[in-house]
Design a protein that fits this description.
Layout (H helix, E strand, L loop, with lengths): L2 H22 L8 H25 L9 H9 L3 H11 L12 H6 L8 H15 L1 H4 L1 E3 L4 E2 L15 H13 L11 H12 L16 H11 L7 E5 L6 H10 L4 E7 L2 H13 L9 E3 L9 E2 L4 E2 L2 E6 L8 H7 L26 H11 E12 L8 H12 L3 E6 L12 E7 L6 E6 L5 E5 L2 E5 L2 H13 L7 E5 H6 L21 H34 L6
Parallel strand pairs: 1-5, 3-4, 3-8, 4-5, 8-9, 10-12
Antiparallel strand pairs: 1-2, 6-7, 9-11, 10-11, 12-15, 13-14
Helix pairs in contact: 1-2, 1-8, 1-9, 10-11, 10-16
């Protein structure tokens, strides 16, 4: 077993033990469980990160110093010395007072004044307050949402609070992130997915929290195949941030700044955790909780308009009920942004209003003239025939914004069976060709509970990215099509419609052709026979119906 796999195994074991404690105390699958698990996981991570960084900056210590030696050193510092130490660490490291450390709480499990659960709560709130300027996210009204909440509020039986948090601290003290901090995104993507796998469910009408890491990596490699610096990344429906994180990792965390907005508080909490785990703390101030469509938070202060970005990635919600805000979105003040119109409110199936077409328009409006974007859409959009969906489809084709399309396998998302495709947008296209890939037959189909899911393997990812970047034409897989050809084909972007059809008989000899026709005729006769039999059965059944009933 590799070192990385061993670390992942131990991390997953700690997560499962935390979840087991929750289950023991009746919190398994409760709405508050995700809050408890993710906050305690993050608390442990920040604690160990602080110990790790202390070893790097303290002259009295070195990389071989044990955790106990580091903690003994920290305990010996005066408040002034502690302050100097933390300043040397830089802004990306949470400052952890000695009384808030995991080891301190572990050693004070028998505290009665205050109660142990109060010590635990105080530690989390203390860390939040000490680091509020760095680790908070904001609402649309600029109100700061702190890093941690008091967790004891979720343990309704007060006499169980002490034992619950004693059980939690015992699990934390047994584990160390010591060997984790040198790892990169791929490691933490695996851990993050495992951490939130039981909470990856729609928790609000707009929310879809987790885009498969495989799709995120494909998009990242296609959008940024070459080195770049000082660029901005944006997702207007960020969820847990998988698309943003993959792209940031591809570009380099130090070379980019992330901006995001999402209407779901839960998804913003997940995103914050993801940013902290992946060394993108400098972008936390740009994570906004709010309604992107109605109240976009990222503005251009110079012209009082919306900010524009170098790269935009998004897997927006596809269909939902936004009837309450529909008329506001259709107001004249939004006409420039929603230039293709706003969907009307249907008489029935209100929950199936195609909100994703508004996100497409918002993304186009928010993209710099030389920017690149990738948007996950339902595959049905590629052949839209009516409504705003059709208007948007024609708009991006007429504007020559569409650079490529990748149709993904069915069931590639754990949370939806909807077939999805990726629109690849580039505003400054120099040619009038669109590169189309049909990847619907790739991947391995597996069972997850009662649902079927398609898993893309590394070889699948490599095939898609290499063929797209190199614009390689492969039979029944990829094709380059002109804008005029697309327009002449009813503006459809479905890759399969542009593949060449081969008639098997064209290259056959006379005798082979005769044999082929004979075989096909036999098959046709068999089908006709079956049809006749079925027709007879239907007629016989109809005769048996008692019309006097």
């Amino acid at each position: 077993m590799t070192m990385e796999r061993e670390i992942i195994r131990k991390t997953e074991k700690m997560i499962e033990e935390l979840k087991s404690v929750c289950s023991t105390y009746g919190l398994g699958n409760a709405s508050s469980e995700y809050k408890i698990i993710t906050e305690i996981f993050l608390y442990k991570y920040l604690n160990d990160k602080f110990i790790y960084e202390t070893k790097k900056v303290a002259k009295e210590l070195n990389e071989n110093s044990t955790t106990k030696e580091v903690e003994k050193y920290l305990d010996s510092l005066s408040p002034e010395q502690f302050s100097i130490l933390t300043m040397r660490m830089g802004a990306n490291v949470a400052k952890i007072q000695n009384s808030y450390r995991v080891s301190t709480l572990f050693n004070n499990q028998n505290s009665t004044i205050p109660e142990f659960y109060e010590l635990f709560d105080n530690a989390l709130i203390g860390i939040s307050n000490d680091n509020v300027d760095i680790f908070s996210v904001k609402t649309g009204s600029k109100e700061k949402i702190k890093l941690f909440d008091t967790l004891s509020q979720y343990i309704t039986e007060s006499d169980k609070r002490n034992t619950f948090f004693r059980a939690m601290i015992s699990k934390l003290v047994e584990f160390s992130f010591e060997n984790v901090f040198s790892e990169k995104y791929d490691f933490f993507a695996t851990i993050f997915e495992y951490l939130i796998k039981d909470y990856n469910k729609d928790f609000g009408k707009y929310a879809e929290y987790y885009t498969p890491n495989s799709i995120a990596r494909i998009i990242a490699k296609i959008l940024a195949p070459d080195p770049t610096q000082n660029v901005t990344l944006y997702d207007p429906a960020a969820g847990s941030g998988t698309l943003l994180l993959a792209l940031a990792h591809q570009i380099g965390e130090e070379n980019c700044t992330i901006y995001s907005q999402d209407i779901s508080q839960k998804s913003n909490e997940f995103l914050r955790l993801n940013l902290i785990l992946n060394n993108l703390v400098h972008s936390l101030g740009n994570v906004i909780h709010g309604d992107t469509l109605l109240n976009p938070a990222h503005l251009n202060k110079e012209n009082n308009g919306l900010a524009q970005f170098d790269y935009i990635v998004s897997n927006p919600p596809f269909k939902t009920d936004f009837s309450e805000t529909r008329d506001q979105l259709a107001d004249d003040k939004f006409k420039d942004r929603f230039c293709c119109d706003v969907p009307t409110i249907p008489r029935k199936d209100v929950d199936k209003m195609p909100i994703y077409v508004l996100f497409i328009q918002h993304i186009l409006y928010s993209l710099k003239d030389y920017g690149k974007a990738a948007i996950v859409v339902p595959t049905g959009f590629l052949t839209a025939k009516t409504g705003v969906e059709r208007k948007v489809l024609e708009y991006i084709i007429n504007k020559n914004y569409i650079n490529g399309v990748i149709s993904m396998p069915s069931n590639v998302f754990a949370t939806t069976g909807t077939n999805v495709s990726v629109l690849l947008i580039r505003k400054d296209k120099q040619d009038e060709n669109v590169f189309l890939i049909d990847a619907s037959n790739l991947g391995e189909k597996i069972k997850e509970g009662k649902k079927q899911r398609t898993i893309l393997h590394p070889t699948d990812l490599e095939k898609i990215t290499n063929i797209y970047i190199n614009k390689t034409i492969e039979k029944d897989f990829s094709v380059s099509v002109s804008i005029n050809e697309i327009k002449n084909n009813n503006f459809y972007l479905n890759p399969g419609q542009y593949f060449e059809l081969e008639i098997p008989c064209c290259n056959l000899s006379k005798s082979e052709f005769k044999e082929y026709i004979s075989k096909e005729m036999k098959e046709l006769i068999n089908l006709f026979d079956e049809s006749d039999k079925l027709e007879k059965v239907i007629i016989d059944k109809m005769k048996d119906i008692d019309y006097d009933l």
